[in-house]
Write a structure and sequence with these properties.
This protein has about 160 residues and is of the alpha+beta class. It has helices at about 15-25, 40-45, 95-110, 125-135; strands at about 5, 55-60, 65-70, 80-90, 115-120, 140-150, 150-160.
Length: about 160
């Protein structure tokens, strides 16, 4: 199936929300316990004006995934650092879509003068840990047993990638 990477539009949000809520229910890829509303999703994602957000879409227009960068912190000392969020629809995983979205976001990050991308990942989300490791991110810290979801304690793992 042909998939393209495009700038996200408000029309993509329903598809994004569906992907996110799938992972809420079926995985440890999110930190939320229950599916979220559109308003809550938009607040969680913090779509930030001027910062890149991309959507992977099939030829038929189905949202296959999404990724975005947002400021890591509003404190000026961290202006060169972005936080990454990336989700791929379950049926589109292992097709290179995440890597393609990440390459697009990294190019945009460089255009914005960013130097570092960070990601926080649940230690129980093995697929995301492997993905980030395979894409040049390095584990740079871990908060042990700080979260509990579905009665299971987990670490928050910090990953970092320095851009060239």
């Amino acid at each position: 199936m042909d998939i393209g990477i495009f700038d996200s539009t408000p029309d993509d949000r329903e598809g994004m929300l569906g992907i996110f809520n799938h992972y809420v229910v079926h995985s440890f890829a999110t930190y939320t316990e229950e599916p979220v509303s559109m308003a809550r999703f938009e607040a969680l994602m913090s779509f930030f004006p001027g910062w890149p957000s991309v959507t992977a879409r099939s030829v038929a227009g189905a949202v296959a995934g999404f990724g975005l960068l947002r400021p890591y912190s509003m404190i000026p000392a961290f202006c060169g650092t972005a936080e990454l969020t990336c989700f791929i629809a379950q049926e589109f995983t292992r097709m290179g879509i995440g890597a393609a979205m990440l390459r697009s976001l990294e190019a945009r990050a460089l255009d914005l003068g960013l130097r570092t991308i960070v990601a926080t990942i649940c230690s129980l989300n093995e697929g995301s840990l492997r993905f980030h490791d395979s894409q040049g991110f390095v584990e740079s810290g871990r908060l042990h047993q700080v979260g509990v979801r579905r009665g299971v304690a987990f670490d928050v793992v910090f990953f970092q990638k320095k851009l060239q």
